[in-house]
Amino acid sequence: MNYGAERVSQINLSQVRKMFEQASPTAINLALGEPDFDTPKHIIESLKDALDNNRTHYSQNKGEPELRENIAKKLEKDNDIKVSSDDVIVTVGASEALYSSIQALINPNDDVLIPDPGFLSYAECVRLAGANSIPVQSSSENGFKTTIEDVEKALTPDTKAMVINSPCNPTGAVMEKEDIKAIAELATDKDIIIFSDEIYEKIIYGKKHYSFQTYTDNAVTINGFSKAYAMTGLRVGYCASCPEIIDEILKVHQYNVACIDTATQVACNTALTSSQDCVTEMTNEFQKRRDLVVNSLNDMGLDCVMPDGAFYVFFHHENPEEFVQKAVKEDVILVPGGAFGQMGKKFIRLSYAQSYDNLKEAMNRLEKIA
């Protein structure tokens, strides 16, 4: 008997998680996109205080009012996005924000543009909505930065929406302001919705982050606390948009999760409103690690572009699957680039969210098989 519903019959489980789960206890895992830093102490203390004060009851469906108000202030200050606290929904990570947004706004047989290479959940979320994923292929010669020309080539008569991720997982690419503005204007002109995944916004090196919602109302800004504040296990994200869009997303969010836990929202409020030095320190350390990894890979003859954001490098190899399997034997876990789309077939993703010493050791191990 086939127990699965038809809509999940073609869904693939994550190759990233598969690589993660096959790691030996002694392996250096460069597959998973999780900061290795501890959650900053002042955030943990805030969570403990919230629990001690019995902040364990239901939150509002959209989230705690104080947190939503401070998210709205953050969006105005950092992103030049003007929304009210009612235009924000606090979600179970950025993942739920993306899933609920797509379920709320996309119809079966709509076309949704997704980045190629791009994070593997995008295509599956679109498929679960009964819609069609249309790849927006970005060029390695351009550092995999999505351009307005890339988007225009992918447009179809049935395009309803697009998912865009900058800084990008798996490539670390950061889009240029001119392309973000041009794509936003295209979305307005053609009445296309942009799902803008900005979870790596704070992990950026020597460049400025720009948001689509600054330039169009046809955007859903998706962000969270996992990456910038090393809070992956606490599972808090959010989405923001215009009232007409947020009201639709709330319907899915409400009947899917009702609300997220209250105490964790208190901790997230502390993260937003206290010193951001912890974010700066972590980002500076990520930059040191990036430089080590990129320079080491290039010295091995493994062609690697210096990424501008996130904590991944996407390096070229003619036989990625073979190299990844050799790396496993050397106790280094990587992810074949084909997991992220057709344009990643000749690439490998490496996450440098590991200690500097572990990365040095991993580079020594990879040098044996390069």
Quick overview of this protein structure:
The protein is α/β, with parallel strands linked by helices and about 375 residues long.
Q: Which structural class matches the secondary elements? A: alpha/beta
Work out the helix count.
12
Strand segment tally: 12
Q: Stretches where pLDDT falls below 50 for ≥5 residues?
A: none
Largest sheet: 7 strands, mixed
Categorize the overall geometry: globular
Characterization of the model:
The chain is globular, with a radius of gyration of 20 Å. The strands form 3 sheets. It has a 7-stranded mixed sheet, sandwiched between helices. A 3-stranded antiparallel sheet has the order 9-12-11. A two-stranded parallel sheet has the order 1-10. 40% of the residues lie in helices and 15% in strands. The mean pLDDT is 95. It is of the alpha/beta class and 370 residues long. It starts with 14 loop residues before the first helix and ends with a helix. Helix 3 (65-79) runs parallel beside helix 9, helix 4 (93-105) packs parallel to helix 5 (121-128) and helix 4 (93-105) packs across helix 8. Helix 5 (121-128) links the parallel strand 3 and strand 4. The chain folds into 2 domains: 6-40 and 277-367, Aspartate Aminotransferase, domain 1, CATH 3.90.1150.10; 41-273, Aspartate Aminotransferase, domain 2, CATH 3.40.640.
